[in-house]
From TrEMBL:
One of its GO terms (biological process) is fatty acid biosynthetic process. Residues 2-193 form the Acetyl-CoA carboxylase central domain. The lineage of its organism: Eukaryota, Sar, Stramenopiles, Ochrophyta, Bacillariophyta. This is Acetyl-CoA carboxylase central domain-containing protein. InterPro entries: ACCA, AcCoA_COase_cen. Pfam families: ACC_central. GO terms for molecular function: acetyl-CoA carboxylase activity; ATP binding. PANTHER family: ACETYL-COA CARBOXYLASE, ACETYL-COA CARBOXYLASE, ISOFORM A.
Length: 224
């Protein structure tokens, strides 16, 4: 009697809600799921939750969120293939009458295979190089579909200070939120030891390694 169905979890595998990080989106957006072509992809129309009414309604974002089982995601060919698939999903979503002409678009991909023989810093450098190429080759589609953020979460096989094997989550983000178009930033995630949910995000590179935050995301009204 005390249980209530979570509509957001309806018609999906039990692990998808966590892997696609839908809880964070649900905190800041009213989400409506729309059809997606890929079996490991979900598409949502998000209306930003705000306490202040705004002319024309709250800002709208189209979210494409997917899971990848491909180990080649950090290569140029693998990254291009995944990004093109995300753009294809966005193109289909833009045809939905519920999506307005001012909506922005964001792509999130969670890569599940563990990466061996590479460090977080090397992954961050590779992501920066790959994004430079993809921005050049796919600029027309990225601009047409109003993509302002691309996010990839990867898992690196590593060891702790005592030599025990661990998996280090690294978040790679290309975002226009700070003004520069799809500027790349990489974060090492510090998970809660009990829940496994990320507790802190620590910036990699440019001498920022000591800078950690609770969440690297922003909305126009709320810290996401």
């Amino acid at each position: 009697d005390g249980y209530k169905e979570s509509v957001l979890r309806r018609n999906m595998r039990p692990t998808f809600h966590h892997l696609l990080e839908l809880g964070r989106l649900d905190n800041n957006y009213s989400l409506e799921r729309i059809d997606a072509a890929g079996k490991n992809v979900q598409v949502y129309i998000g209306s930003e939750k705000t306490v202040k009414p705004s002319r024309g309604g709250p800002p709208q974002v189209v979210f494409v969120r997917g899971i990848s089982h491909s180990p080649g995601l950090v290569t140029l060919a693998g990254a291009r293939r995944s990004l093109v698939q995300g753009l294809d999903e966005l193109e289909r979503a833009q045809a939905n009458s519920k999506v307005n002409l001012q909506s922005s678009s964001r792509i999130f991909l969670h890569s599940l295979p563990e990466l061996d023989g590479i460090t977080a810093e090397e992954v961050a450098t590779k992501f920066d190089e790959v994004m430079d190429v993809l921005k050049s080759r796919l600029a027309t589609r990225l601009l047409k579909l109003r993509v302002d953020e691309i996010e990839v979460k990867v898992r690196i096989a590593s060891t702790d200070d005592e030599g025990n094997p661990i998996v280090q989550p690294v978040r790679l983000v290309a975002s226009s939120m700070e003004g520069e178009w799809l500027k790349t930033t990489a974060y090492v995630e510090i998970p809660d030891p009990v829940t496994g949910v990320t507790r802190e995000f620590c910036v990699l590179g440019d001498g920022k390694d000591s800078v950690c935050m609770l969440d690297p995301y922003e909305t126009s009204n709320i810290v996401q």
